[in-house]
């Protein structure tokens, strides 16, 4: 029996733990990913085969396409045998063996004959779009259309859509935040904020300590920073029965310009709220129920 999957605007590092956990924690689960960026999808295929094994891998389908026309998205093809033969056992620091893919060749290509509309995908239980992906859509009509496609993909028996959003006074001006981890530093850079269009450019840079390498603009996005009521209105207009907000205050950006790791406040819990007073920074999960 299909248990369903998750359709997301998926990308590299961010979505990976969620995807893996979903697949690993139940052998009947399937996952579906959709992204405009073929390179990101290839990376996901290469990276995860060694972590979920052949069985888990067979339950993941990645599509290259636009969330505004999901049915036209093309299945990313790969040769599992070829991938599996590329897995090598590597010795971890603690002496344990971990699987790793040696090859970094492009493994995925898209097939014109296999698009989402021609494949029998089961209704999805959870659709998620994290790391503020919805801000990549700039027009209200696009957001509503995207939410309608999400609703179409969801199971009518309790399916949910989960997305995230950030905000606060610090999100509406130029800002540079740095986080230091053991072997790399990560920089979130926010360009000037245009209040007429509510647009900014977000760039993520990485500094790899060991390799003394800088990856400037590793990711760069032109974003429209939506407000919570705009998202709620669009979800309702698309047909979601109810919309729920889970929020938490984030550490003050003036105090944490340079933070070690996740910094203090990592354990602050999200709470479901009906109202929330403006803060320097907040983060929200928005849940749309079918
Ligand atoms: C900020 S990233 C977040 C990725 C992902 N949700 C995660 O948690 O890792 C936004 C992603 O949305 C993809 N994207 C933007 N517009 C899209 C569209 N119209 N259709 C499909 N993917 C899109 C980009 O290629 C990028 O991978």
Automatic annotation (TrEMBL):
Name listed for the protein in its UniProt record: S-adenosyl-L-methionine-dependent methyltransferase superfamily protein
Stored PANTHER family: EXPRESSED PROTEIN
SUPFAM superfamilies on file: S-adenosyl-L-methionine-dependent methyltransferases
InterPro entries the UniProt entry points to: SAM-dependent_MTases_sf (IPR029063)
Domain of life per record: Eukaryota
């Amino acid at each position: 029996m299909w248990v369903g999957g998750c359709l997301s605007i998926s990308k590299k590092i961010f979505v990976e733990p969620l995807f893996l956990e979903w697949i690993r924690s139940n052998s009947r689960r399937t996952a579906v990913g959709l992204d405009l960026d073929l390179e990101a999808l290839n990376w996901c295929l290469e990276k995860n085969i060694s972590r979920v094994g052949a069985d888990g891998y067979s339950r993941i389908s990645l599509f290259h396409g636009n969330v505004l026309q999901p049915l036209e998205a093309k299945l990313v093809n790969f040769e599992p045998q070829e991938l599996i033969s590329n897995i090598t056992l590597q010795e971890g620091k603690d002496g344990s063996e971990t699987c790793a893919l040696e090859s970094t060749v492009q493994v995925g290509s898209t097939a014109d004959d296999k698009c989402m509309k021609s494949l029998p995908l089961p209704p999805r239980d959870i659709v998620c779009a994290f790391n503020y992906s919805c801000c990549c859509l700039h027009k209200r009509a696009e957001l509503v259309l995207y939410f309608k496609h999400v609703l179409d993909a969801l199971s009518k028996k309790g399916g949910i859509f989960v997305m995230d959003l950030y905000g606060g006074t610090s999100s509406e001006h130029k800002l540079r935040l740095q986080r230091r981890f053991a072997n790399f530093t990560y920089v979130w850079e926010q360009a000037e904020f245009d209040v007429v269009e509510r647009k900014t450019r977000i760039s993520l840079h990485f500094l790899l300590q060991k390799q003394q390498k800088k990856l400037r603009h590793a990711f760069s996005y032109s974003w429209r920073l939506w407000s919570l009521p705009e998202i709620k209105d669009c979800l309702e207009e698309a047909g979601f029965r109810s919309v729920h907000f889970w929020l938490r205050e984030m550490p003050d950006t003036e105090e944490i310009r340079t933070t070690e790791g996740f910094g203090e406040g990592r354990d602050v819990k999200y709470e479901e709220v009906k109202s929330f007073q403006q803060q320097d920074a907040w983060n929200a999960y928005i849940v749309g129920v079918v």
